[in-house]
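Many introductory courses stop at the sequence. We go one step further.
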Amino acid sequence: MKPLFLAVALVVLAGCGVETASTAATAASIKQREMEEAKKTQERAQQKIDQATQLMQQRAQQSGNDGTH
């Protein structure tokens, strides 16, 4: 009777471990997607900042050129 009980207990515990590993893998996958999206958002923000900086520089140059004529 004891060996049967031990076998059932091991199967149940092994199943819990598989579920835990699966949950951890799913959580890691979600975090990876979140990080990829955050990186894309950061890149888009940096592009907008670069464009705004370039536009400000162009306007400053135009103002400087307009003042000398």
